[in-house]
Amino acid sequence: QVQLVESGGGSVQAGGSLRLSCAASGYTYSSACMGWFRQAPGKEREGVAVISTDGTSTYYADSVKGRFTISRDNTKNTLALQMNTLKPEDTTMYYCAARLGWCRPSSALLLANFYNYWGQGTQVTVSS
Question: What are phi and psi of 97, to 5 degrees?
Fold first, then answer.
């Protein structure tokens, strides 16, 4: 069984920060390409950031460049998203995603259909 569990969401004021975490189990996490997505009710799932299998390469959506940082710790089987200078438009549910195998992050990997494993999501709310 493959499990991805997000945590760290919550409510903050605009300009604040949050750090999301994703704990992976049930498969060889170190061999997986990982990404963060967000999706509001009734909206399409939007790719936020992706990181290569070894953590040396990343790609970000234009809307979060310079504010968010994706990272991974393969020793602890965890993925993180540091979210700084949060804006009200960042408010939504955030999801962790994985696909086994190597990858080189690019805009194509911000598409949800690239991934085959998903977490249950964690809510982020940013107030003005």
Answer: -135, 155
Q: Who contacts 121 (Cβ-Cβ below 8 Å, separation ≥6)?
A: 6, 39, 93, 94, 95
d(CA 59, CA 104): 9
Measured CA to CA, the distance from residue 108 to residue 59 in angstroms comes to 10
Instruction: Compute the distance between CA of residue 89 and CA of residue 87 in angstroms, rounded to an integer.
Output: 5
From residue 109, how far is each of 16, 106, 114, 116 by CA, in Å? 28, 6, 6, 12
Q: How confident is the model at residue 29 (pLDDT cuts 50, 70, 90)?
A: low
Residue 2 to residues 12, 58, 86, 97, 127: CA-CA distances in angstroms? 31, 23, 31, 11, 34
Q: How many CA atoms lie less than 13 Å away from 88 in the CB half-sphere?
A: 2
**Average pLDDT score over residue span 103-126:** 96
